[in-house]
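User: Second chain of the day. Same drill as before.
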Amino acid sequence: MAKMNLSFTFKNGDLCLCATVQGTPKRNYKKVSNLQSPNFDSWDVKQQQFIEPTQEAINNNRLLSEMKARYQLILDNCAVNSGKELFELYEKGIKVEAKRELTFGEYLKKIIADMKNGSSKNPSKTYQVYVTLLHKLEIEREIINVPLRAINDKHFVSFGEFILNNFNGVNYAALMKNFKATLSKARKKQLTENVLNYLYMEDAPTKQINMNKVVDGVSILTKKQYNKFLSLDLSVISSGGREREYYKELYRDFCIFLYETKSRPCDVIALHSDTITGNNIAYLPIKKKNYRDLTKAFVFTTLTPKAKDIV
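Assistant: Same format as last time:
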C-alpha cells in the first residue's frame, strides 16, 4: 500500500483535490464541484482555504474539508496504491467505517504487554517504568484517553505541570523521559508524526541539599570530619606486611582524590594522563557515554592543590 498525501491545487484553471503518492511525482486529480460563488483571489495555498470574511467562503471551506475527509477515510482503511484507484473506489460507493483511534493509554499498555511477555524482538524488564507512567496517567485521567496521533507538546507540558503540582515533582524527570520515549516508539511505527520539543528539564524541581545531613542514605562528611580523615595515622590500622602499608596510603589518596574532584570511583579509575591539562581534568563520565551530544556530556574539573599532589 502506497503512502499518499491529499491537497487542493489548481489544474487547468480548476480547483482540484490532488492525490500524490509520497516520494514520487505520481499525481491524480479530482475536480472540486458545488462551490458557492468562489472567489479564487482569496484562496490561500498554505492554509488550503478561502480567507475572505464572507459566508460563501465559510461554506466553501466546509465543503472542501468534508470532501478531503471522505477520501482520507478510504486511505486510512483501504489498501490504495494510486490516486486513480482512490477516486475510483469512491465512485463505486465503497462503504467504509472509520476505525476507532488508538489512545495514548492503550498504546502504552501495548508497550508494557510486549515488554512483559517478551513478544517484542527485544524483551525487557524495564516495562516497570512504563507501568509507573501509566499509573500517573490514570490519576490524571484526561491525557490517557487522547488519540495517540493527537498527542503533542501541549499534552506533554500539561502532564509535567500535573506531576509538579500534584506530586511535588517526585520522579518528574523519569516520568517525562518515558512519556517522550512512548511517543518516539509510536513515531518509529508510523502511528504519529508529532515530535515533542518541550525542554522539560528546564522546569525540573531542584533539590535543596544540606551537606551535613544524610542524602539518599549516605552521610556526607563535614569539613571537620574530612580534616580528621586527612590526618589519620595509618599505622594504627593493623596490616599484614610492607605492601599493605603502601595500599593503605594508596586507598586514602584515592578517597581524597574523589572528595577533592567530586568524581565517581568508576570515572577516577578510568582516568588517563591525557585527560589532565595543567590544573584541569576533562573526561566523559561512564554514565553519560551514551549521550547523543557528547560535547554536553563532558565534565571539566579543576584540580585542587591536594588532588594535584596526588597526581
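Residues 55-77 form the longest helix (23 residues).

User: Great, on to the next one.
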